[in-house]
Every structure is written in C-alpha cells, then in structure tokens.
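Write out a sequence, fold above all:
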Amino acid sequence: MNSLINDEYAKLTKSEKPKILLCTPEVTELPAGMGNLSNLIKFKGGGLGDISAALINYLHKTDKYELHIAIPKYDREIRRLERLEDRELDKLTMVMSAKNIHLVNKSAFSKLGLYDEDEAHKRSRRAEAYQEHVINHLLPTINPDVVHCNDWMTGLIPAAAKEMGIKSLFTLHNIFTEKEVMKNLHRSMIDVDRFKDYCWFENHPENGKNLWRENPVDFTATGIFASDFFNTVSPTYLEEVVAGYFEDIIPLAVRETIKQKYYAGRAKGILNAPDDSFTPELLRNIINYDIQNFAEGKKQNKTAFQTAMGLDVNNERPLFFWPSRLSHQKLPQILFDIAQKFTYEHNAQIAIVASGDSDAQDVWGKLACASNGSIAYKLFNPKLSELGKAASDYVLMPSLYEPCGLPQMECPRLGTLPVVRTTGGLKDTVQDLDYAGNKGNGFLFNDPDSNGLWYAMYRAVDFYHQSAKLKENNIQRIMKESPETFNLEKTAEQYCEIYDLLLEER
C-alpha cells in the first residue's frame, strides 16, 4: 500500500509544472488572465518594463511553467490609475498574491516613483527592501525551480538562491549598479553572511572586519557572478563588453564578471522585441493604417504631428524623429551640432520628444524657437512619442552604446526607417538600405561624431526623394519583414530554452 501511495505521489510530483519566479523592478502591464486587478500593475521606467510584460504574457499564454512574479508595490503609480485608500492598497497585495503576483509591500515604495529617491529612501535602500522580501519570504515560500532576476535591483537574489540550491538567470538591461557594505545590508535584514561566498566585493576581502564595514558588495556584479546563466539584451553588446569597449562607462567589476561567464559558456545575448500590438493597425494614439495604405496613413499622421509640435505643416519635407532621453549615452550633442545647418540645406525637419537634464532641455528649446518651424522640441509624452514614430520618415538613434534599443525595431513596423550607429542592439537589428536592390531596412554610420550622422541622414534624404514606386516597394517590404524578424515569441522562446537548461541541471 505504501509503495502504491509513493508511486502515485511520484506521478503527481512529476506532473507538476516547474516553478519560475520572475523578479523585475518594473512591468508595463500584466495579462488580463492573471486577475481582474492586474490592470493596476503598470510600472514603467524604460525598456525593462516592456520586455518584462511581454515575457510574462508569453509565459502565461503557453502555461508551460507555474509562473510567479515579484515586483515592488509602487503605491503612487497605482493611485494614478485608481483612487484607492491605504487599506484597499494593502488588501490588493493579498489579492494579487493569490494570483502569483507578489507585490513587495514596503514603505520604501509607498510615496516615490520607480527610480526616484529622497533622503529617507535612497535607491540602494529601496533595492535592499525589495531584495529582502524576495530572499527572506518568497524564495523559501515559493521554492522556485528557477529565479529570473533583472538588473541591479535584483543583484543579491542569485547569491541567496545559490545558497538555497535554486537555479538562477540574471539579465542585464542597463549598465548601472549600486554597492553596500555588509553591515548596512544586515540592518536591512539581509543576512549576507549566509551567502557571502557568492557575492562580488569591491575589493578582495582581507579579513572579516574589512568585509563587514569597509568592503561593499556590488549588486550588479554579484547578480552576474552568482547566477547560473547570464544574458545581455543583444548579442553584439555582449561581444562589445567582452572585447573591452566602453571602459570608461562599464564598471570594472561588472565587465570582469561578464567575461567570466562568457568564457565559461554561460552567457548569451538575447534581443528584446516590440510588443505584438505595436502595429499601425492597433496603436491607440495614431491615425491607424496598414501596409497597403501606409503612404496616405503616414501623411495624415505627419500633418497631425507637425501641428502638435509647432512644425511647418508640409508633407514634402523629410521628417526625422528623436525618441530617446537627452543623455550622453544617446549622443544628442552630435545631432545638436548639425541640426540647424542640415535642416536648412536639405529642407528637412527634426522633432525631439524627450526628457533630459534642465540644461539639455533648455538648449533644445532655444534651438527650436529659432528654427522657423524646422526643429521642434517637447518634453517626453508617451502619446506624442507614439504619434511621432508613425508620423516621421526616419527615427534617429546615434547612440554611443546601446544594450538593445526598441525604437529601431518598432518604427520599421510603421514605415519609419532607422538612422543608427553601428553599436550593440542597433547593429544587430539594422542593415544598410540598398533601395535599388530592395534590401536592408535603414541607414548606418560607424564613428560617434556629427560627420557620420550627417552622411547617414543625407543618404536617408536621398532615399526620400526617389520615385514613389521605389519607396513604396522598399517600405512595404520592411513593414512586412520587421514583425517576422523581431518578435516577442522568438525572444521568449530563447528565455524558455535557458529555463529548460537550468531545470535539466538541477
């Protein structure tokens, strides 16, 4: 009898789906099938939120794994969507947990936005509050087979998971890290002493005292070092980091841990991809169109966007759109240096819908005011940015480095061609347009300077003035190929391959 019971129990155990715990500091949306209140969980700071949402949606649909999600409960963001009292917000945590959505309910997330900080709630302390809950409560309670961690805010979790015998994957979306000494981590109720052998310290430990008070743990480097598998969000970016590019940007500890994983065969580049709903037929903030009537559809959107931006309303002028933050990584300076002269000489227009520091915003605003309808600048607005992607002829991404990037994959779906520098995910996703041979999908340049950008934009203008039929053939092909080549199903399948590899290695 006992043997029969044991056999039946073994069958039951084998039939259970593997548990995946996905830890992410942001997500743009959750599948409706995860509960009526899932629409309240919309926390986006950048591309990580988009790919987290897409991966969760794919895993939920395939139903191959028992999926759990750990995300901070940003009360302020929830209140933007629904007016809820504190008592109702606390109840939300319990309700969502029953749906395997585990909201980290800490005071550190109650008043500030995603990556904001103040004197009481530094970014590192907020990350510690999140990781403490995952390490002390979710890992032992859920006992996942694989924990998938994303970016620096989750960096200590792979080390704790390794000590508990749980496999982990660490995904690096953004080059950023925080550091903290063990003494302060213990104050945050994280018993680092338990898994310190799997942590990456800023300096080689010399003694216990040095380790405790003076030698900080690097969050991102620890996540990479301790994980069983590591990935960046594009193959070329991984190769660039290993080859020693961007030495003044990427922290040495992060680079060294990436190289270790790479040479051990435990690293991979997996391209992100736009959401399946990012099409000219489905976007909510544009005048919808399709491949067949794209020319007329883009013309209508161009008129609407030019009007909204204060540009000269003229469909004959080629329009370049800047979709990214005004940060050094994106190299807005090399566009600024040529914008006025280029728009004048080529009867072109440039539109920027982006935020940045106050100085950057000020200089672009002044340039726009002096351009007589050729250059326009407005602070980032998601609806206006979406309209700009559909309305424009070209999207500009001359980045110094780019872990992945999404606009260069989104915009071709809308018939807007990318002008990019050959780096990271941009190099992986854009091929030079040979319009005579009807091949390629954009315009590339190599050197991170204004001369290179000018020539790429010049070639884009040259294509703009080709015959309507030649342009139509190329753009329709690009619109068709883009979702076939870069889509979330392909991206998610690669993550599932890593999950399955780790499950086999248990």
Q: What stands out?
A: The radius of gyration is 24 Å. Residues 1-15 have pLDDT under 50 and may be disordered. The chain has two domains: 11-273+489-504, 294-486. The CA atoms of residues 387 and 477 lie 22 Å apart.
